[in-house]
Automatic annotation (TrEMBL):
PANTHER family for this protein: NAC DOMAIN-CONTAINING PROTEIN 104, NAC TRANSCRIPTION FACTOR 56
Transmembrane annotation, as ranges: none
Species of the source: Dioscorea zingiberensis
InterPro entries to which the protein is assigned, alphabetical: NAC-dom, NAC_dom_sf
Molecular function via GO: DNA binding
Classification of source organism: Eukaryota, Viridiplantae, Streptophyta, Embryophyta, Tracheophyta
Name recorded for this polypeptide: NAC domain-containing protein
Gene3D superfamilies tied to this protein: NAC domain (2.170.150.80)
Length: 210
């Protein structure tokens, strides 16, 4: 297990990317992806932990994400610019079903769009097992109750710029690899941020194996 020295809050957050590699699973909820990561990206605020890279999704195929995107539980996470042109080198992404609301403290803060990857050229491509969850923000005021601290930081730094419609955060996985977790199992899991912050509060010293 890993702990942290008391009184080192800012320092411990910078180490969370190391902790996640040393035994912690990156298992974020939809709410955490939108409120703790995507909101900060859109508001030009530092993400804590700063571990999710920014990629041009539509310049690479999903099986090329390994080593480029952040991987957790056979799922890949990254930021990308929003676009309706979801065509890659060897195929394209097509939305399926209806967009799902992402809520935080009983308020809608974002939407989750589900897409499936097809090999070939539209509209006659071959459907694959690759799925993408693409998250984007709703009205900027919707995140107020969940992001008061980040808003205060933005005001203190003089930053008022907010790119709500510019960025998306994506989760990509291959259903044939067994990476998709059932809803029941997902409800039983602590999210990645829960695990990190619980562990930081429980121990006084940082201890890493040799």
């Amino acid at each position: 297990m890993y702990g942290i020295k008391k009184g080192a809050k800012s320092k411990r957050l910078r180490h969370t990317h190391v902790i996640s590699k040393q035994g912690f699973r990156f298992f974020p909820s939809d709410e955490e992806l939108v409120v703790h990561f995507l909101y900060c990206k859109a508001a030009h605020l530092p993400c804590q932990p700063d571990i999710i890279p920014t990629l041009d999704l539509y310049h690479c195929d999903p099986w090329e994400l390994n080593g480029k995107a952040l991987q957790g539980d056979n799922k890949w996470y990254f930021f990308t610019r929003r676009t309706e042109h979801r065509v890659s080198a060897d195929g394209y992404w097509t939305p399926i079903g209806d967009d799902e609301p992402v809520t935080s403290r009983n308020a809608n803060v974002g939407l989750k769009k589900t897409l499936v990857y097809y090999m070939g050229e539209p509209p006659v491509g071959i459907k694959t097992n690759w799925i993408m969850h693409e998250y984007h923000l709703l009205d900027t005021n919707a995140c107020t109750s969940s992001s008061n601290s980040t808003r205060r930081s933005s005001k203190k730094s003089g930053q008022q710029r907010f790119d709500a419609n510019k960025w998306a955060i994506c989760r990509v996985f291959d259903t044939s690899s067994g990476s998709q977790t059932s809803l029941n199992d997902e409800g039983m899991e602590l999210s990645c941020l829960d695990e990190v912050f619980l562990s930081l509060d429980d121990y006084d010293e940082v201890s890493f194996p040799n």
